[in-house]
């Protein structure tokens, strides 16, 4: 009878089992407890325990707490005229341990015996801080000010709901288009639509912040960039500016790819990384803009002016890692991001018409997606790829660019493939590898063997997280060095207002880094002009101030970015292009100004050289950004 | 196992009775009829019946003389020898019958399922059919509404007859009847069904334990039923809310002369005196007019002896008037600003917060038994000078109160130590000279805020005291506790003046009506009650909360009462008839604080979901349907519109335990910061 009860009990609520009662009885030295007594005790104890717990719950409510604490239990006992068991101060988590033996299973809480002497001799714990009162505005006339004391304005869930809402709204709109009889409701629907279009209005502070961040992200000052990126990665409440940032990135990539401006592409990708790192942002909405931008940086045919010299490989690697993060974080059964990206990469890998740089990118992209992808998507195409590489390195016409690309692909392959190959089941002989993987066979084999020798590292090394962390630190370093070596730091990001100033003949101060000794260079400045009619001078004041001084809009950076300040190499020659995009009410117009700086010395010697002077010397023309991309 | 040796005499009696039950039962019925006849003086019939039934005088005498305690009597009501297996069938049959009814009746009839279920289960337990009881419970406990599940869990814990005897909740089930309101049509349906099927078991049970109040009119809808259900013992009996409640405000004392003086004094600091004085005069006149005319719903001025106004109180009242003139008028378009006072480093747990009416101080009760008082103004909290120094003060001086304070002791915060248990509530006196605290140690302490020490320790409650509140006029205060009573005290008596007894569970919160003539209480039996201070009777029982009630507040005009609790709902009640006006839903956890704005247009609520919410009380009252008939519950309408929520303001992990509107309608909010 007891057993049948027990079985039924568990559904209604937990109860003390007869076994537990026996266990407890044994622990206090009663060995021969009869079945009936144990069952009776179990039932009684369950009832009493439930009573007390229910009472304790009431006390926790009275103390205005969510959780029931041990003190509540004590109080409940006391209110029932039972002496409480003192000394039970439970932490939030009680680590129950499991033990079994002799056909019995036990859960217990391990309690260490304390040496009183030790307790007495140990230093006293710190006196807790005295409670104090702090006042702040939770709301001013119904509006919650965004001060640090208040929670961030929109949680991730809210941002998510926003899109869902729009979807519903759109549905309503569609429904009403068919049914025009309900004029009133139709009218309502129209209003809803109007409201949809006018979202994302930025306050003046937000506009300033946006300007500061974008300027710093693509600007010359590495420390400011680090701060800006840190701010993007950690600040809550950026969601309102998110669409602007995304547009900034995607448009920036479009133009800079055309202009082959490696440095700016790197900066933009670092912005993407920061945005991905920010836990408060709901990025799903903007993936359709982000993914093409990132993918472009992975598999574009050309990312820099001199593919034979510039290290665009690092950018491809970095972007590939970003893509892997995106796939990991956002890929769902519905959007199938990973599958689609894999397909894109595989197509690039299969196609022998594309450049080797593109294939390198595709390899990087696939490699970052993990062992399974490597095995199924890279290995089958190795022999084809090998053939191309053989042509590039040993063929009749040796192109320097292709040769470097081939070298890099080899490095890439020996980085990603060995662990996948080890489990591929192909016997590790030169012949087998050559038959299987063609030209690349011997290389792969040697890399496997090399890795086996250094197998002090466990096979877990290629596992994603660790690899990523190590690489992330290193690449950011690489970028900096690379950027300083090849192209000088960009001049200033500025607002469109500087057109008017240049027309007026003023000379805005433009900081240029001493190391920027020319080199062929293009800069893209994407700026939004929220109020086209606003006074140009104030905007100018902001832009010039923003470049010379550093307003404390962004947070201090605590993590070191690993910036290495190597001596800048002076590059000869310097055709310089500046692209300014004026973004106004959704229409993107870009003005492309190309200017040639006569001597690099002029920049070095005259740090005050303004944008205006560049424009004076240059021939400016404008194009639509859409045309370019 | 069934016959364990621990049975009390009562029990033995019951089992013995069970033996020759049929015989005995009939006899008892006859005896009851005889008694009825005797009461109605139908002697002939009585004599005939006696003869026919062959009942001796002896039998009658023994029946009469049998002493029985209330509990044993109530328990005996469960005695039955019916086959335990038929309970399931009977219950299923009832369910099927209700299912087959028309929709309009079904919702009403559904309400009887819960009490029938509970009592059937108890009957099975009482008759020691534990196994059947378990089966019965297991099979049907999920039929009931979600808000019943907590009670059902408690019920399910009861597994033996012995448990029934000292289970507080069951005591209530046994001794009182479950009240249900039902339209006549639905009731006739039910009756016909019961008679047609000869369901004696069910008929008896309904007769014994249910009180069905039948009203004429159309049956209620699901929403209407839901609006009033939820209390431990069903809805309020109709008669319970019939008494007249004088909810109007007392006439303000005549303060004309000093007010004028103050008026002139205040003009000096204004920028444009001519304009201002005109404006003020107009406003003041309106105010005075309002106060001067007699509220028809106000109680007689002398209904309750009130403390006489001292000069100090008059000055205070003038201050209130002056502040009220500078008040911001709040509405849905003009929301108040909210200032949050966060209690930092309060790891020991804060369990009660109170602001003074003039917003100059805030007090917090902590779980370690301490109380802290902070000043919110630049004025420091000071101690009185020691008696040796007090001697030298000029007692006749105008600023004697100022002189007796010791400036050297001025601090921003003071700690009051004395309680040995959690301090559940604190309450400032209206004159700000004293503070009351209610604690888990079963005592209420009165603290003097000049000496910062305990003056009186009131030991009346037998169990933890959950709440204490000063009356708006001072002098009196009310407390409520786990002993299920609320008590009225005056500060100069160490024993309570009134005991308000009637709640079926712990009294969680108490509050004085603005006119000091009534006391409202909220309890974990999920009812809100209103008690008359004059005679201690319960004048309103308001049901509708689905979980325990944790906070109360009266509207400034005294007619409405808002209550909030663990069911995350704030309910606005009309005291004139005891019905709910609006259910305000939006909180996602227990509501622990409520406050009306000074003119009553906005209701603010706060809870442990770390949010402050503002509700449009003005709109509720505007939309209130005043011409409904309280005799017919199906005409009542409860406003549950989501539009009533005007704003939600989340804090950063700070549960909102204290809310207070300043006299100028700035909302002050307080709570401990709980880092996660």
Automatic annotation (TrEMBL), chain A:
UniProt keywords, alphabetically: Nucleus, Transcription, Transcription regulation
Domain of life: Eukaryota
A single GO cellular-component term on record: SAGA complex
Matching Pfam families: TAF, TAF6_C
Keyword Transcription in record: yes
UniProt GO MF annotations: protein heterodimerization activity; RNA polymerase II general transcription initiation factor activity; transcription coactivator activity
Stretches for region Disordered: 480-520
TATA box binding protein associated factor (TAF) histone-like fold domain boundaries: 14-78
Protein's cellular compartments: Nucleus
InterPro entries linked: ARM-type_fold (IPR016024), Histone-fold (IPR009072), TAF6 (IPR037796), TAF6_C (IPR011442), TAF6_C_sf (IPR046344), TAF_TATA-bd_Histone-like_dom (IPR004823)
SMART domains reported in the protein's UniProt record: TAF
Residue ranges with Low complexity bias: 485-507
GO biological process, one term: RNA polymerase II preinitiation complex assembly
PANTHER family named among the record's database cross-references: TRANSCRIPTION INITIATION FACTOR TFIID SUBUNIT 6 (PTHR10221)
Description of how the protein assembles with itself and partners: The nucleosome is a histone octamer containing two molecules each of H2A, H2B, H3 and H4 assembled in one H3-H4 heterotetramer and two H2A-H2B heterodimers. The octamer wraps approximately 147 bp of DNA.
Family, similarity comment: Belongs to the TAF6 family.
Designated name of the protein: Histone H4
Source organism per UniProt: Pomacea canaliculata
Automatic annotation (TrEMBL), chain B:
Gene Ontology biological process terms from the UniProt entry: transcription initiation at RNA polymerase II promoter
Mapped WD repeat ranges: 343-376, 416-451, 458-499, 500-541, 542-583, 584-616
Name of the protein in question: Transcription initiation factor TFIID subunit 5
UniProt KW Isomerase keyword: no
Location within or outside the cell: Nucleus
Location of region: Disordered: 260-284
One CC-aspect GO term: transcription factor TFIID complex
One Gene Ontology term of the molecular function aspect: RNA polymerase II general transcription initiation factor activity
Lineage of the organism: Eukaryota, Metazoa, Spiralia, Lophotrochozoa, Mollusca
Keywords: Nucleus, Repeat, Transcription, Transcription regulation, WD repeat
SUPFAM superfamilies reported in the protein's UniProt record: Taf5 N-terminal domain-like, WD40 repeat-like
Family: Belongs to the WD repeat TAF5 family.
Listed Acidic residues bias regions: 260-270
Main location: nucleus
Keyword Endoplasmic reticulum: no
Domain TFIID subunit TAF5 NTD2: 82-210
Organism name: Pomacea canaliculata (Golden apple snail)
Source organism, top-level taxon: Eukaryota
């Amino acid at each position: 009878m007891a057993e049948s009860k027990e079985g039924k009990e568990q559904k209604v609520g937990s109860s003390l089992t007869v076994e537990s009662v026996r266990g407890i009885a044994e622990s206090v030295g009663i060995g021969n407890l009869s079945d009936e007594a144990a069952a009776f005790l179990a039932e009684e104890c369950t009832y009493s325990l439930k009573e007390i717990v229910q009472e304790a719950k009431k006390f926790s409510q009275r103390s205005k707490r969510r959780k029931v604490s041990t003190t509540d239990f004590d109080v409940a006992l006391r209110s029932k005229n039972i002496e409480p068991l003192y000394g039970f101060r439970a932490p939030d988590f009680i680590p129950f341990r499991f033990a079994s033996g002799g056909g019995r299973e036990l859960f217990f809480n391990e309690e260490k015996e304390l040496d009183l002497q030790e307790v007495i001799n140990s230093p006293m714990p710190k006196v807790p801080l005295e409670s104090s009162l702090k006042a702040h505005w939770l709301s001013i006339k119904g509006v919650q000010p965004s001060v640090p004391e208040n929670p961030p304005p929109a949680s991730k869930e809210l941002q998510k709901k926003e899109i869902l809402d729009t979807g519903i709204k759109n549905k309503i709109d569609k429904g009403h288009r068919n049914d025009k009889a309900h004029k009133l409701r139709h009218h309502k629907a129209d209003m809803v639509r109007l409201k949809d279009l006018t979202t994302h209005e930025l306050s003046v502070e937000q506009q300033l912040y946006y300007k500061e961040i974008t300027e710093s992200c693509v600007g010359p000052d590495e420390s400011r960039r680090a701060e800006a990126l840190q701010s993007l990665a950690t600040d809550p409440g950026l969601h309102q500016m998110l669409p602007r940032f995304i547009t900034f990135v995607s448009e920036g990539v479009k133009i800079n790819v055309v202009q082959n401006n490696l440095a700016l592409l790197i900066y933009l990708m670092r912005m993407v990384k920061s945005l991905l790192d920010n836990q408060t942002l709901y990025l799903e909405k903007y993936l359709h803009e982000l993914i093409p931008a990132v993918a472009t940086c992975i598999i574009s045919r050309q990312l820099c002016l001199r593919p034979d010299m510039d290290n665009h490989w690092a950018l491809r690697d970095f972007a590939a890692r970003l893509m892997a993060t995106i796939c990991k974080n956002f890929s769902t059964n519905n959007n199938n991001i990973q599958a689609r990206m894999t397909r894109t990469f595989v197509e690039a890998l299969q196609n022998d018409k594309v450049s080797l740089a593109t294939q390198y990118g595709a390899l990087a992209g696939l490699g970052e997606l993990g062992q399974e992808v490597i095995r199924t998507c890279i290995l089958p195409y190795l022999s084809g790829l090998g053939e191309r590489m053989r042509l590039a390195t040993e063929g009749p016409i040796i192109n320097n660019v292709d040769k470097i690309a081939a070298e890099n692909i080899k490095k890439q392959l020996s980085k990603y493939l060995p662990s996948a190959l080890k489990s591929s089941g192909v016997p590790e002989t030169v012949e087998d590898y050559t038959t299987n993987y063609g030209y690349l066979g011997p290389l792969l084999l040697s890399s496997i063997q090399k890795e086996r020798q250094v197998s002090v590292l466990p096979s877990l090394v290629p596992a994603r997280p660790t690899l990523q962390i190590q690489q992330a630190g290193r690449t950011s370093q690489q970028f900096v060095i690379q950027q300083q070596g090849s192209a000088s730091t960009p001049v200033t990001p500025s607002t469109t207002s500087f057109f008017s100033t240049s027309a007026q003949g003023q000379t805005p101060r433009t900081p240029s880094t001493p190391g920027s000794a020319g080199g062929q260079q293009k800069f893209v400045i994407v700026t939004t002009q929220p109020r086209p009619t606003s006074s140009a001078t104030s905007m100018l004041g902001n832009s010039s101030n923003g470049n010379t001084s550093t307003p404390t809009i962004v947070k201090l950076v605590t993590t070191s970015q690993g910036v290495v300040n190597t001596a800048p190499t002076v590059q000869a020659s310097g055709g310089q292009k500046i692209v300014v995009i004026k973004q106004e009410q959704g229409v993107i117009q870009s003005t492309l100004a190309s200017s040639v700086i006569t001597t690099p010395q002029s920049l070095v010697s005259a740090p005050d050289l303004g944008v205006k002077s560049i424009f004076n010397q240059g021939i400016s023309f404008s194009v639509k950004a859409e045309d370019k991309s | 196992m069934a016959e364990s040796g621990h049975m009390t005499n009562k029990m033995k009696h019951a089992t013995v009775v069970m033996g020759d039950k049929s015989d005995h039962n009939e006899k008892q019925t006859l005896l009851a009829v005889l008694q009825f006849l005797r009461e109605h003086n139908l002697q002939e019939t009585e004599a005939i019946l006696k003869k026919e039934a062959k009942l001796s005088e002896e039998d009658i005498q023994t029946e009469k003389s049998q002493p029985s305690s209330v509990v044993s009597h109530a328990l005996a009501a469960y005695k039955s020898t019916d086959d335990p297996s038929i309970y399931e069938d009977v219950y299923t049959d009832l369910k099927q019958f209700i299912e087959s009814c028309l929709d309009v009746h079904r919702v009403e009839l559904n309400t009887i399922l819960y009490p029938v279920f509970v009592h059937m289960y108890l009957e099975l337990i009482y008759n020691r059919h534990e196994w059947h009881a378990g089966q019965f419970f297991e099979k049907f406990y999920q039929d009931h509404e979600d808000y019943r599940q907590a009670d059902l869990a408690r019920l399910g814990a009861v597994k033996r007859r012995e448990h029934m005897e000292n289970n507080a909740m069951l005591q209530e089930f046994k001794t009182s009847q479950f009240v249900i309101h039902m339209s006549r049509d639905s009731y006739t349906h039910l009756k016909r069904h019961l008679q047609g099927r000869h369901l004696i078991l069910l008929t008896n049970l309904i007769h014994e334990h249910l009180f069905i109040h039948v009203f004429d009119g159309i049956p209620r809808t699901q929403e209407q039923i839901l609006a009033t259900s939820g209390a431990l013992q069903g809805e309020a009996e109709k008669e319970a809310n019939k008494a007249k409640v004088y909810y109007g405000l007392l006439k303000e004392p005549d303060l004309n002369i000093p007010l004028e003086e103050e008026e002139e004094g205040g003009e000096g600091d204004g920028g444009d005196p001519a304009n201002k004085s005109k404006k003020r005069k107009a406003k003041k006149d309106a105010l005075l007019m309002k106060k001067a005319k007699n509220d028809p719903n106000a109680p007689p001025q002398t209904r309750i002896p009130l403390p006489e106004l001292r000069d100090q109180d008059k000055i205070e009242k003038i201050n209130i008037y002056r502040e009220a003139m500078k008040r911001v008028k709040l509405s849905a378009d003009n929301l108040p600003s909210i200032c949050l006072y966060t209690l930092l480093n309060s790891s020991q747990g804060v369990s009660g917060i109170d602001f003074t009416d003039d917003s100059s101080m805030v007090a917090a009760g902590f779980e370690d038994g301490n109380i802290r008082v902070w000043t919110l103004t630049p004025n420091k909290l000071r101690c009185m000078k020691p008696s040796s120094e007090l001697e030298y003060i000029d007692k006749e001086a105008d600023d004697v109160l100022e002189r007796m304070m010791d400036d050297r002791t001025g601090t921003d915060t003071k700690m009051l130590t004395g309680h040995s248990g959690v301090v559940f509530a604190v309450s400032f006196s209206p004159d700000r000279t004293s503070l009351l605290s209610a604690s888990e140690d079963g005592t209420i302490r009165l603290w003097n805020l000049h000496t910062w020490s305990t003056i009186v320790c009131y030991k009346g409650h037998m169990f933890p005291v959950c709440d204490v509140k000063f009356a708006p006029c001072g002098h009196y205060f009310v407390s409520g506790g786990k002993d299920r009573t609320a008590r009225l005290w005056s500060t100069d008596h160490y024993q309570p003046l009134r005991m308000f007894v009637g709640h079926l569970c712990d009294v969680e919160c108490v509050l004085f009506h603005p006119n000091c003539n009534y006391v409202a209480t909220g309890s974990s039996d999920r009812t809100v009650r209103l008690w008359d201070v004059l005679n201690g009777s319960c004048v309103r029982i308001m049901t509708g909360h689905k979980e325990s009630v944790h906070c109360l507040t009266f509207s400034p005009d005294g007619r409405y009462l808002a209550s909030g609790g663990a069911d995350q709902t704030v309910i606005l009640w009309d005291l004139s008839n005891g019905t709910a006006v609006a259910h305000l839903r939006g909180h996602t956890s227990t509501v622990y604080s409520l406050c009306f704005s000074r003119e009553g247009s906005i209701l603010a609520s706060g809870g442990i979901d770390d949010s402050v919410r503002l509700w449009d009380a003005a709109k509720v009252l505007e939309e209130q349907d005043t011409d409904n008939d309280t005799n017919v519950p199906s005409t009542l309408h409860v406003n549950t519109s989501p539009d009533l929520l005007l704003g939600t303001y989340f804090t950063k992990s700070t549960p909102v335990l204290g809310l207070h509107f300043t006299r100028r309608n700035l909302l002050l909010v307080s709570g401990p910061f709980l880092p996660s």
